[in-house]
C-alpha cells in the first residue's frame, strides 16, 4: 500500500502517478471493498473541522493529493517532492489501464446526460473497456429499499472499479458507509465526471502548474464556490502557516 504522510491532521498517500494507478487497479482486482478519496484543500479543511469526516479520510485505503497545494504541503513538511494526483487526471488514466488489463468499471452518480456523454467517449476511445453499469441516483436521500437495490445491482455487475460522483463530502461518506458492502474499489472523483464527459473544460497544463485551476472554477461558478475557495483556501493557508511556525 502507498505510504501516507500527514498534512494538517489527515494522511495523504504518496508515490508516483503510475504507482497510484497500479495500486488502485490492484485493489479493484482483489475485490477488497476499498475506497479512494481525492483530497483537495476543501476536503482537508473540512476534515480539520469535523472529526467524523476526518475519520472517513483516515479509513480510506488511498488518499490522493488532488490539489496542488496539498501535494506541495506534502513536500514542505516531509522533504520529498510529491506530484499532484488529481481525480480529473486519474480517471482517464485508470480507464485506459483498466481496458488494457481487462478490468471492468461502473459509474454511480451525476446525471443521465453526463453518463451518456461518458459512455460515448469510452466507446469512441476505449472500445474494449467493459462498462459493468451506469446509474444516476436521485438527488435526495434514498430509501433503505432503494439503497439495497443499488448495492445489489453494483455487486451483481461485479466491477473492479466503482467511480462515484455525489459531491464532497457526500461521496466520501457514502463510500465509507458502503465499505464491506460493495465488493469493488470505490473512487470519489466528483467533478471528473464532467471533465471526462467533455462538459467542463480544464485549464491548460501550464496554468494548472501555477495553481490557477481554483480561480478558473471560481470564475465558472462564483455563487456556488466563492466561500469554498476564498474562505476555505484562506483558512488552509492559515493552518499550514501555523503548523510551519510551530515546527520552528
Describe the protein in words.
The model has no long low-confidence stretch (mean pLDDT 90). The chain has one domain. The longest helix has 25 residues, at 222-246. It has helices at 17-30, 41-49, 51-59, 68-78, 87-101, 112-125, 144-157, 170-178, 192-196, 205-209, 213-220, 222-246; strands at residues 4-7, 10-13, 34-39, 62-65, 104-109, 130-135, 161-165, 185-188. 37% of the residues are buried. The protein has a 6-stranded parallel β-sheet, sandwiched between helices. Strands 1-2 form a two-stranded antiparallel ribbon. The chain is built from 12 helices and 8 strands. With 248 residues, it is of the alpha/beta class.
How many extended strands?
8
| Multimerization state | single chain
Task: Summarize the biggest pleated sheet.
Answer: 6 strands, parallel
The computed structural class is alpha/beta
Given the C-alpha coordinates, what overall shape results? globular
Topology order in helix (H) and strand (E) letters: EEHEHHEHHEHEHEHEHHHH
The tally of structural domains comes to: 1
Mean pLDDT: 90
> What is the C-alpha radius of gyration, as a whole number of Å?
18 Å
User: What is the tally of helical segments?
Assistant: 12
* Beta-strand fraction estimate: 15-25%
Which parts are unreliable, with pLDDT below 50 for 5 consecutive residues or more?
none
Structure characteristics:
248 residues, alpha/beta, 6-stranded parallel beta sheet, two-stranded antiparallel sheet, 16% strand, hexosyltransferase activity, transferase, WecG_TagA_CpsF, WecB/TagA/CpsF family glycosyltransferase, glycosyltransferase
Amino acid at each position: 500500500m502507498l505510504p501516507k504522510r500527514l498534512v494538517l491532521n489527515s494522511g495523504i498517500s504518496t508515490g508516483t502517478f503510475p504507482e497510484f494507478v497500479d495500486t488502485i487497479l490492484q485493489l479493484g482486482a482483489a475485490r477488497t471493498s476499498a475506497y479512494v478519496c481525492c483530497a483537495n484543500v476543501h476536503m482537508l479543511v473540512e476534515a480539520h473541522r469535523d472529526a467524523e469526516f476526518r475519520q472517513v479520510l483516515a479509513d480510506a485505503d488511498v488518499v490522493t493529493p488532488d490539489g496542488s497545494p496539498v501535494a506541495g504541503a506534502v513536500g514542505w513538511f516531509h522533504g520529498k517532492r510529491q506530484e499532484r494526483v488529481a481525480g480529473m487526471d486519474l480517471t482517464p488514466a485508470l480507464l485506459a489501464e483498466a481496458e488494457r488489463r481487462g478490468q471492468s468499471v461502473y459509474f454511480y452518480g451525476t446525471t443521465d446526460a453526463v453518463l451518456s456523454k461518458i459512455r460515448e467517449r469510452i466507446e469512441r476511445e476505449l472500445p474494449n473497456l467493459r462498462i459493468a453499469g451506469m446509474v444516476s441516483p436521485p438527488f435526495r436521500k434514498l430509501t433503505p429499499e432503494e439503497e439495497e437495490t443499488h448495492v445489489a445491482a453494483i455487486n451483481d455487475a461485479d466491477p473492479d472499479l466503482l467511480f462515484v460522483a455525489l459531491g464532497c463530502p457526500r461521496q466520501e461518506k457514502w463510500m465509507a458507509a458502503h465499505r464491506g458492502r460493495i465488493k469493488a474499489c470505490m473512487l470519489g472523483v466528483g467533478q471528473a465526471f464532467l471533465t471526462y464527459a467533455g462538459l467542463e473544460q480544464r485549464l491548460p497544463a501550464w496554468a494548472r502548474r501555477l495553481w490557477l485551476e481554483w480561480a478558473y472554477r471560481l470564475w465558472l461558478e462564483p455563487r456556488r464556490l466563492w466561500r469554498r475557495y476564498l474562505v476555505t483556501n484562506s483558512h488552509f493557508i492559515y493552518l499550514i502557516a501555523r503548523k510551519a511556525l510551530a515546527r520552528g
